[in-house]
Design goal:
It is built from 17 helices and 13 strands. The longest helix is centred in the middle third of the chain and has 22 residues.
């Protein structure tokens, strides 16, 4: 029997590679308990939806992890990683410009109004340049978890542009300062961008400006007050007008494009200045991980994420994996920390079943703290059930459906 394990991270507990590894250990133990002589193979394919975890998915698919010293969201030097395979690079912008790399993040001091107004995406531009230095010409930009609301102005700066005020002085970092922007000098923009292709991996379809824009929708998550939101939105609108004066009306069109509001507006500059094609993050990840090709010959797929809920049904990782499994005719089940989906919703989404850590431990905080051991235990129970389905050959899809439909009893 061969099982493909293709989960996303369990946010706050385990990375996707850790989830896959823990499940594999439990599955093998559970299957071997009843059939020690029978073959059992697991193929581990960590995946993500284009945001945090995309880098891990790339490395798990044969990319090489690289690093560069770049400018963090508040100007501090940090070491950020990206992934390279031949002339292809995967950049997870949260590595360079994310909330998680803000100084003091997690101790209550960040994010706040100051970081909301002044955080920059400069480090993401510097990561792109590092990838170009290594010869990469096809660059996937996975966005999500950003600290900035600067419209991607920092990305432009990282690639050689100068943002100048009326006195010819370079603007300080951050979205709020864009209100004082007078002109953008693109004369030193990296010439290699002319032959590079960019993909914006994002599920966010918000425009850059207005009531559903980057500042209004995502600014408060980054510490912005209502006053900050108004100031940032006005500054971004001014940035668009100035950029349009430099590159033409396509800059204004790009501000309304779906996805322009992603990652504090990094989506905007990717579309307007880098010519990026926006694609759903999960589709991009499943493509470079070659999930569908690696499903050939599999008997079961297991996917999942920390919380399986209504949000999951809107195109997040489990749904993308389920669709790929359906196209390959392979049954799929989900594992998660907790699930709020009904059996009908699971069936309609293509899942045979879902198994949650809360089936083993009712205390959610304990599930988060002890996710690793609990996942192994959950995997063991699934493995035992699979062994009951396997005589001398793998189960049919119908038998797998019958077996996995019932909840686990522990």
């Amino acid at each position: 029997m061969r099982v493909v394990i293709a989960p996303d991270k369990f946010k706050g507990s385990l990375s996707a590679p850790e989830v896959a590894s823990r499940l594999s250990t439990g599955l093998r133990a559970g299957f071997a308990a009843s059939h020690p002589a029978e073959g059992f193979e697991t193929t581990l394919i960590p995946v993500a939806d284009g945001g945090e975890g995309t880098l891990d998915a790339a490395v798990g698919s044969g990319f090489t992890r690289r690093s560069a010293t770049v400018t963090g969201p508040t100007g501090q030097p940090i070491t950020a990683e990206f992934a390279v395979r031949g002339k292809e690079a995967v950049i997870e912008m949260a590595e360079a410009s994310g909330l998680a790399v803000l100084p003091g993040f997690g101790d209550g001091s960040a994010p706040n109004t100051e970081t909301a107004r002044n955080s920059t995406s400069l480090g993401t531009g510097e990561l792109i340049r590092a990838a170009l230095d290594l010869g990469c010409r096809h660059i996937i930009l996975g966005v999500g978890g950003s600290a900035n609301t600067d419209g991607g102005a920092g990305v432009l700066q990282g690639l050689g542009a100068l943002l100048l005020d009326a006195d010819g002085n370079e603007l300080p970092a951050g979205g709020a300062a864009l209100g004082r922007l007078d002109r953008i000098d693109l004369s030193n923009l990296d010439v290699r961008l002319e032959v590079a292709e960019f993909v914006l991996a994002s599920d966010v379809d918000n425009p850059l400006l207005g009531r559903t824009g980057a500042a209004a929708i995502f600014g408060p998550q980054k510490g912005a007050t209502p006053e900050d939101v108004a100031a940032l939105d006005a500054a971004l609108a001014h940035f668009v007008r100035v950029l349009a004066g430099e590159i033409g009306p396509e800059a204004e069109d790009a501000a309304q494009a779906p996805g322009a509001g992603a990652a504090g507006g990094v989506g905007y500059i990717a579309i307007a200045a880098l010519g990026a094609a926006r694609r759903p993050g999960i589709d991009v990840v499943l493509e470079f991980t070659e999930l569908e090709q690696r499903l050939a010959g599999a008997d079961l797929v297991i996917t999942g994420e920390g919380s399986l809920d209504e949000q999951s049904l809107l195109g997040k990782t489990p749904m993308g994996v389920a669709r790929a499994a359906a196209r390959s005719g392979v049954p799929v089940i989900a594992v998660c920390g907790r699930s709020t989906l009904s059996p009908e919703q699971l069936t309609e989404s293509g899942f045979e079943s879902a198994h949650a850590l809360t089936e083993l431990e009712a205390n959610v905080e304990k599930c988060i703290a002890e996710a690793g051991p609990l996942l192994e235990e959950l995997g063991k129970h699934i493995g035992v059930r699979l062994s009951g389905n396997s005589q001398s050959q793998a189960p049919t899809q119908d038998s797998a459906r019958t077996e996995t439909k019932e909840p686990l009893h522990v």
